[in-house]
Structures are given as structure tokens and as C-alpha cells.
Amino acid sequence: MSEQASDVTITHHAQGQGGKYVAHPGDSDTTGFLEWEPRSGLPKEQVASDVRVATHTVVPEAIGGRGIAGKLVERLVADARERGFKIVPQCSYVAAKFKEHPEWSDLLADQRS
């Protein structure tokens, strides 16, 4: 699955039980990424498979300043809307973007552990 956004292609890749959104600018071999994992730490019967914990967002300096991290979060949010999952913004960047976008609050998962 790919998305073109201002010369940046974003793809989603399964990674273990979780996944990774990878941003690849058209003019660079350097990529940025946002990783997520399913919520864990609860008894098996309480773990919601429809909750994704955004754990890390990384955009190397070589491609920084282009809004790539924001595009990665927007893709995560778009997928959450389309597929019906909730998000725990463990990553500080993702948490900051949720604060900037109160219209995304319906996608926040209950933060209990």
C-alpha cells in the first residue's frame, strides 16, 4: 500500500506483530519511519487487537524540514479512520501532533495499562 504526498511515498510494512510506515522522498535514498506495535501488557482476553501504540518516529537530518514526520502521522491517522483502530501516542512527536489536531481525539485509545 502506497501514498504519494508532495513527492513523498509512504508505504506500510508488517513488522512482527506490529508495523512500520516508511516515507521515501522521491529525490533521496534516505527514508524516515513511524513504528507501531499492538497494545500489550494486559491479560490476553483484554488486549484489543484494534489498538496500535505509536512507539517511534524517526526522520534523519538528511531529509528533515520537509514535514515528513507529519505526513507519517497523517497516514497513521488516515489508516485508523479507514480500518477502525485506535492509537496510543507513546512517541512524543505523535503525541504532540494529536495535541495540535483535536479533531483526531476520537482516535485516541484508552491509555490504561
Query: How much of the sequence is in beta strands?
Result: 25-35%
| Number of helical elements | 2
**Main beta sheet: strand number and arrangement?**
6 strands, mixed
**Helix content percent band:** 10-25%
Q: Characterize the overall form.
A: globular
**What is the H-and-E element order?**
EEEEEHEH
Task: Give your account of this protein's structure.
- With 113 residues, this protein is an alpha+beta fold.
- It is 22% helix and 35% strand.
- A hairpin with a 6-residue loop joins strand 3 and strand 4 (32-38).
- It is globular and about 40 Å long.
- 25% of the residues are buried.
- The model is unreliable at 1-5 (pLDDT under 50).
Write the layout of secondary structure elements.
Blueprint lengths: L1 E4 L2 E8 L2 E8 L6 E7 L12 E8 L9 H16 L2 E4 L2 H9 L13
Parallel strand pairs: 5-6
Antiparallel strand pairs: 1-2, 2-3, 3-4, 4-5
Give the key terms.
single chain, 113 residues, alpha+beta
Summarize, please:
This protein has 113 residues and is an alpha+beta fold. Helices cover 22% and strands 35% of the residues.
